[in-house]
Specification:
six-stranded mixed beta sheet, 19 helices, single chain
């Protein structure tokens, strides 16, 4: 990679960090954030000043030792106590304020990204977009990890590394002049002439650290990609374990333990394989860093020893040279010492940036324009609606539908024909659609597989609204109407209801929500598929009675004849010819 290319990478990284960082420091917390950042900078500058004082103390103290000057010795010990005590106080408050800023910054970014991830169904659309990609490595994976882990790493590494750079630069500026003045001139003869090199120790420190930085870059470069990949495989392993827990009953019924163990072993093998590569890369870097650090301890003594043994300088000056060289060398070696952290930081920044870009891209994805009809007798209307699969395949095109209050519509068709996808377009959550949809106000969708949050039964029943808005009598009546009378006395019991209840009980609990909230329009996607025929008929009778009383309508996806008999209109998805613009078309008939 050329120097220009490396500068381009550095510029791109800086732009990414700025893009991710600046919103917090312009937010409603900007003054607190800027004040804490300014305090951290001030404490770092004060720390460098105290190190300069400590460097001067080295000369006086060690000269007193060499000259056996006891009064100065004890005086300098007292001075050291003051400097050391100030450094201790500084270290404590620098740590505290830094951690406080990291915590507040992480809290703000977490709130910011949670809001964006959960708004406009981005969390749902992101999963669809991820599986639609032909390149599995494109775009962000595991958004939960981006928000939980990467934000934490980004805030801590950004503050730590930026303050480290600032501290290194200020230390370099503060000590390079000291080292230059203490170095003296280095003379050598060449071609019969004598040459002098002023500030010899400074040039030696520069060459030493420049060589170390170049070697570190080439040794540690593989860690950037390996760190990125490690986060991906770790997240995949954790995600699959969560799925095993989520589908524990189904897996147990199928006796799928061995298969799941094989899948988990494969994912964990990927974790170990990549970690071994990362470990080897880190080992190579540690080999060099350890050698580089140990050599730096004796290097200034070796270079300055001739002047000391010749009597040109005393012990105090030698120790001051060693201290100043160490500070300059530490500053110039910042890149060497922090390469692993820089690699992690870059990988984390890339993941967060891709997450941000994906959220922005989802906002640009064309989807059906949905308007909410708020009139008392507003119909459901779809105009020129087109539905596509994530891979671009057109399911339905030029679709025009209308359902009015009082209607009961059955949507039927072959599996995979797009029935549930049409419901998703009605609900304005399907991003691969275009056209216009007018959705009646006060509508509820009942999925085939409902979701219930862990907690009390009353919270699961009222979800997503607050349970406090409903009386116990209303909650119990909804459970009774949904054929769940045995749950009426468990309203305050906490459980993982999505796992505790059977499939049929879960569907009836989802219907109890509808009976509790009494919407005017109901969209039921095989909402009773797990029920027996008598229970299904009883439930549907209650749903039909509710929408009739509310002067609304019901649109159902179902396959059983007894459900079809309860609807007046049928929308049937029928396959079209292979050369047609879409795979299916809808035919409307009256029962």
């Amino acid at each position: 990679m050329s120097i220009a290319s490396r500068f381009a990478v550095l510029k791109d990284q800086t732009a990414k960090v700025w893009q991710l960082s600046i919103p917090y420091f312009k937010s409603e917390e900007k003054w607190k954030a800027r004040a804490m950042l300014a305090a951290i900078v001030a404490l770092n500058l004060l720390g460098v000043y105290l190190l300069v004082l400590l460097n001067e103390w080295n000369q006086v103290f060690y000269d007193a030792l060499q000259n056996k000057n006891q009064p100065v010795f004890w005086q300098q010990l007292g001075r050291f106590t003051y400097i050391a005590f100030a450094l201790i106080i500084l270290a404590v408050y620098k740590f505290y304020i830094t951690q406080l800023l990291e915590m507040r910054w992480r809290a703000w970014m977490t709130d910011h990204y949670l809001g964006r991830w959960l708004s406009n169904q981005a969390f749902y659309k992101m999963e669809l977009a991820r599986f639609a990609k032909t390149n599995p490595d494109a775009g962000p994976d595991n958004p939960d990890q981006r928000i939980q882990e990467d934000l934490n790493q980004f805030t801590s590494l950004t503050i730590g590394l930026c303050m480290g750079v600032l501290n290194a630069l200020v230390t370099l500026v503060s000590f390079v002049g000291i080292l230059w003045n203490l170095s003296g001139d280095f003379s050598f003869h060449l071609g019969g002439s004598e040459y002098f090199v002023p500030g010899f120790m400074v040039w030696m420190a520069l060459l030493y650290c420049l060589a170390g930085s170049i070697i570190t870059f080439y040794i540690g470069r593989p860690q950037i990609k390996l760190n990125f990949q490690q986060q991906r495989v770790e997240a995949d392993f954790r995600h699959h374990m969560v799925r095993v827990r989520e589908y524990s009953e189904s897996i147990a019924l199928d006796h799928g333990e061995k298969v799941e163990r094989t899948h988990l072993d494969m994912r964990f093998a990927a974790v170990l394989a990549n970690y071994l590569k990362l470990l080897k890369a880190q080992k190579n870097l540690i080999w060099f860093n350890s050698f580089f650090g140990q050599a730096a301890v004796v290097f200034p003594f070796i270079v300055a020893a001739p002047r000391f043994f010749s009597g040109a300088i005393q012990l105090g000056t030698l120790m001051q040279i060693s201290s100043a060289f160490g500070r300059v060398q530490d500053s110039l070696s910042w890149f060497v010492d922090n390469y692993s952290s820089l690699a992690t930081w870059r990988a984390t920044t890339d993941r967060l940036t891709s997450f941000e870009e994906q959220i922005q891209a989802l906002a640009q994805v064309q989807s059906a324009q949905v308007a909410i009809n708020k009139g008392a007798n507003a119909p459901l209307e779809a105009q020129d609606l087109q539905l596509r699969l994530p891979d671009g395949t057109v399911l339905l095109s030029g679709l025009n539908l209308r359902a009015t209050p009082g209607d009961s519509v059955l949507l039927s068709g072959p599996s995979g024909s797009g029935k549930s996808t049409l419901f998703r377009a009605f609900a304005a959550i399907w991003p691969f659609s275009s056209g216009k949809v007018a959705l009646p106000a006060d509508a509820m969708f009942i999925p085939q597989r409902p979701y219930f949050p862990d907690g009390t039964l009353r919270s699961a029943l009222a979800y997503p609204t607050a349970a406090s808005g409903y009386s116990d009598e209303a909650l119990r009546q909804a459970l009774t109407d949904a054929l769940l009378p045995h749950l009426c006395n468990q309203l305050d019991q906490e459980a993982a209801w999505g796992q505790k209840l059977s499939g049929g009980e879960q569907q009836r609990l989802a219907i109890a929500r509808v009976l509790l909230k009494k919407p005017r329009w109901i969209f039921a996607d095989e909402a009773t598929s797990a029920l027996d025929a008598p229970a299904e008929n009883s439930i549907y009778q209650k749903l039909l009675a509710q929408v009739q009383q509310a002067q609304g309508a019901i649109i159902s996806i179902a396959h059983r004849p007894n459900v079809a008999a309860l609807h007046q209109t049928r929308w049937t998805l029928e396959p079209q010819a292979a050369d047609a613009a879409a795979r299916y078309q809808i035919k409307e008939t009256k029962e």
